[in-house]
Write a structure and sequence with these properties.
This protein is α+β, with helices and mostly antiparallel strands. Helix content is 47%, strand content 16%. The strands form four sheets. It has a five-stranded mixed beta sheet with strand order 2-7-6-5-4, sandwiched between helices. The protein has a five-stranded antiparallel beta sheet with strand order 9-8-12-11-10, sandwiched between helices. A five-stranded mixed beta sheet has the order 14-15-13-16-17, with helices on both faces. The longest helix has 21 residues.
Length: 540
């Protein structure tokens, strides 16, 4: 028997997403059933019902029937029936528009049948790739191949051949290098050379020690070692191009080992997906609370961490959602990808020490930490936590990290609003050249509010002053000198000399340009309201 949680962990986004789960994700799934609305609307306890002939609200009768029958969950394309499923007491899953029903059915049934057989459906994709690659390297080099991580654990190896030496036999049997041999290799300086950088390390045959001739190469991401490939010579000599093939293999393997190190387990990936859905407002707090071990009625707070400079915000969205979805930054090197994964682990360790039920997830290139079940007056403790994380990241990962504190919300269901606050703070930290690594909404409130006022002006041309629109257009066609002068003069509270110093021009030139701007636009700069509107609109 398996749980809905395990089925979701195996299928995962973007194939399926949870919309609502009234009884949590621990409900048992015993069978996978395909249902066409034209068929009798029947379901049995434990069924995962795939509704293939109806979308959205048209699936409501099938959802209700599944609830009456005690089904574990219903999967629908274009699901909008969260309220129907909640009333029926059945979990509702939405299936991606591009997903094929036969693919969903096959994967889900595989999980259920594996559970019936007493096994567990694990992905194994990364290790499967490594075993296949080990066999390819063995073919190209003519030797016996094993791939190890930096802790000397055997990750994969080629098929057994003749003349397997004692070192290889013991390593594969124990799934790690035997300490007696590892000590000798360290003494000979082999590991030091492998971790120093690219290149082939040759180890001569030592019959008295049970070691045949072998070559090895380190696997690196930038300067960071990820593991080692060993090629033992068997009954036949290694091929003429064995060393070239091994060097190419060491470079090919780097992304594979990065995936092995950074790809979360299915259960952890599910928790991350649940957090992302909660922070994006796609999943209600009650559905996720049990699985993350949080009380949905207690206060919560979101922290956002960024390795890169976030872009400007176009303004808030209704419903407390984040003002924008940050674009995922381009990963320029394997090393950068590893750094982000290490940052996620660092944040997870620190936040879990503060709140047992803390969750961490990556959305759009940023790392978000949800702190549920907050005690009263937690502001100072959370601020200290954020500062400790950024300081530790600088010290141990050598990466600049910014941290933004979202506001404390009274209930877990409002976590998306706290995430929106944190995103706005990160954007303001960049625009305002904020010196510290950590900031809260209180620290940059003026920047955030100004940004949202400007975003509103940008999205509502109807409420702008057409005279200032005309001034900006005129200035763009005539050298672009009037608007900067007016803004500098306004920023200096009318102090012509201060504005002149900023612009590096003569004060009389500032006076002339401000008068000229007033003539062109017809705006009265002596009127406080018009001055305020001028400054806001020209900032666009």
């Amino acid at each position: 028997m398996t749980s809905l949680r395990h089925v979701l962990a195996t299928l995962g986004e973007p194939l399926v997403e949870v919309v609502v789960a009234p009884h949590g994700l621990g409900v048992d799934v015993t069978d996978v059933v395909i249902l066409d609305p034209e068929d009798p609307l029947e379901a049995s306890p434990g069924d995962l019902v795939l509704v293939i002939g109806a979308r959205g609200r048209a699936a409501a009768p099938a959802i209700r029937a599944a609830g009456r029958g005690g089904a574990a969950a219903v999967a629908v394309k274009g699901a909008t029936g969260a309220d129907v499923a909640a009333d029926a007491g059945v979990a509702l899953l939405t299936v991606g528009a591009e997903a094929r029903w036969e693919q969903v059915e096959s994967l889900a049934r595989g999980v259920v049948e594996a559970a019936r057989a007493g096994g567990e459906a694990a992905s194994g994709e990364v290790l499967g790739d490594l075993f296949a690659l080990a066999q390819t390297i063995a073919t190209l080099t003519g030797g016996l191949v094993s791939i190890e991580d930096t802790a000397n654990r055997v990750l994969a190896y080629s098929r057994a051949g003749d003349e397997v030496d004692e070192l290889r036999r013991l390593s594969i049997l124990g799934r790690e290098g035997p300490e007696r041999y590892l000590a000798m290799l360290r003494e000979w300086g082999v590991y030091q050379r492998l971790r120093a950088g690219e290149g082939i390390v040759r180890i001569d045959e030592r019959p008295e020690l049970g070691i045949r001739r072998r070559i090895a190469a380190g696997i690196h991401a930038g300067k960071q070692p990820l593991g080692t490939i060993w090629v033992q010579e068997g009954a036949q000599p290694l091929t003429e191009r064995a060393e070239t093939a091994l060097l190419g293999a060491s470079r090919t393997l780097a992304p594979q080992l990065i995936r092995a190190r950074t790809l979360p387990s299915p259960e952890l990936r599910l928790r991350e997906d649940l957090l992302a859905s909660l922070l994006e407002g796609r999943l209600d707090a009650e559905s996720v609370a049990d699985d993350i071990g949080a009380d949905p009625s207690r206060p919560a707070q979101v922290l956002a961490f960024s390795l890169s400079h976030p872009g400007p915000s176009p303004g808030p969205q209704p419903g407390g959602k984040p003002p924008w979805t940050p674009q995922k930054p381009v990963v320029r090197s394997d090393n950068r990808q590893l750094r982000r994964a290490e940052l996620v682990h660092l944040i997870a360790v620190h936040t879990a020490a503060y709140r047992r039920s803390a969750l961490v997830s990556v959305i759009g290139g940023r790392v978000y930490a949800l702190l549920p079940d907050l005690p009263e007056h937690s502001d100072a403790a959370v601020l200290a936590l954020a500062r400790e994380i950024t300081a530790t990241a600088r010290r141990h990962l050598d990466v600049p990290v910014r941290a933004a504190l979202g506001g404390v919300v009274p209930r877990l269901s409002e976590a998306a609003a706290s995430r929106g606050d944190a995103d706005r703070v990160l954007a303001a930290m960049t625009r305002g050249h904020w010196a510290a690594d950590v900031a809260s909404l209180a620290d940059v409130r003026a920047e955030v509010l100004l940004s949202e006022v400007l975003a509103h002006l940008a999205s509502q041309p109807r409420i702008r002053d057409p005279r200032l629109t005309a001034l900006a257009a005129h200035d763009a066609d005539h050298g672009g000198i009037l608007v900067p002068a007016v803004l500098a003069w306004l920023n200096a509270f009318g102090d012509v000399r201060a504005a002149a110093r900023v612009l590096n021009i003569h004060p009389n030139t500032v006076r002339y340009r401000v008068r000229r701007a007033a003539e062109v636009s017809g705006v009265d700069f002596d009127d406080p309201a018009q001055r305020l509107l001028t400054e806001l609109q020209l900032r666009l």
